[in-house]
Amino acid sequence: MKKQRQKTGMFIGKLLAIIFILLTGSFILFSFTIKTLTGDFLKQLGISKTDADEKIINSILGGSLDQYGIRNAKNIAVGNRAAVTKDLLLYTKTYVGSPAFIKAYNELRQREKPEVRVMQTPEAMHKELIERSKKAVADMEASAQKADATMKPMFEKMVVDAKKQLKEAEDPNNKMIANYRKNYPQGLKDMEKVNQKLLEDWESKYPGNHLLFVKMRMQQFLDETKDIDFNAQLIEKNGKKYFVNKAYESKGNRWKMAFRAGKDAVETARTFVQQWINEIN
Question: Which of 7, 113, 228, 249 could serve as a FRET partner for 36 with CA atoms 20 to 30 Å apart?
Fold first, then answer.
C-alpha cells in the first residue's frame, strides 16, 4: 500500500507539471464555480487557490515545471487519475480566463516586445565622430603634459596625429561620412524590414489575444503526446527503471512524463485539449 501511494504521489506531481506547463485554454462559463472547484480537488491536493494560480502563471508563462508544495497528492487513489486530470484542466481553463492571468500575460508580452531599432542619421554620425576626435586630442595632450622626458616625444607625436584625425573628421566632405550618407536611404529601408520582422516574430510568439498563446501550448501538448507507447516494457537496473526499447530512452522529458502519467490521464487530457483548441478562433 505504501509503495502504491508513493507511485500515485509521483503521478500527481508529474501530472500537475505537464498540465501546468503545456495546457491552458479559453474561458467558458461552466455550471460549477471556482469556489466549489477549489474547495474540492485543491483541498485533496493540499494546495491553496493562491498557490495553484501562481503555479499556472509561472508554468504557462514562465516555462517552468512547478510541482512544489503539493502535500496531499499521495493520498489520492490511483483510480482517480482521469478525474483529477479533468479537474486540473477545468480549473486551469477557468483561471486562464481571469483578469489576473490576462494581466500577467499582457505584462509578459510587453516585456518581450522588441525595441524599434533607429538608424543614426549622417549628421548625428558626423557630430559624434568630431566629438570623439576632440576627446582623443584632449586625452593625448593631457598624457603628453604628464609624461616624463623619455615618453614625452612619443605622446607629442600622438597629439599631432590626433589633431590630424580631428581635422579630417571636421571636413564637410569626410569620405566615411559621405559614403554613409550615400547608403543611408537604403539603410533606412533595410532597418525598417528588420524592425518589421522583429515585430512579426513577436506577434507570432505573443499574440494580442492571450488565448492564441495558450492555444500554442495546447497544440504542443498534443504533438508531444500523440505517439506514447503506454505498453512499453520497463526493466530495472540498480534501482532505476529503463525502457526495454532503447529508442524510448532518447525521448524527451515530457514524453516520459506522459508515459508515467498513464493512458487514462493522457487520453483524458488529449480529448479535453482538442475540444479546447476547437473553441478558440
Answer: 7
* In a shared domain, residues 101 and 137: no
Contacts of 163 (CB under 8 A, 6+ apart): 137
Tell me how far apart the alpha carbons of residues 192 and 241 are, in angstroms, rounded to a whole number.
Answer: 55
Q: Which residue, of 151, 169, 198, is where some domain finishes? A: 198
For residue 238, what are the domain limits?
A: 2-113+206-279
Q: What is the count of structural domains for the chain?
A: 2
Among 166, 198, 230, the domain-final residue is 198
Q: Dig out the grid coordinates for 237 from the structure.
A: 537496473
Tens digits of per-residue pLDDT, 120-165?
Answer: 999 999 999 999 999 999 999 999 999 999 999 999 999 999 999 9
How far is the first Cα of the chain from the last one, in angstroms, to the nearest whole number?
Answer: 47
Record the pTM: 0.70
φ and ψ at residue 102, rounded to 5 degrees: -60, -40
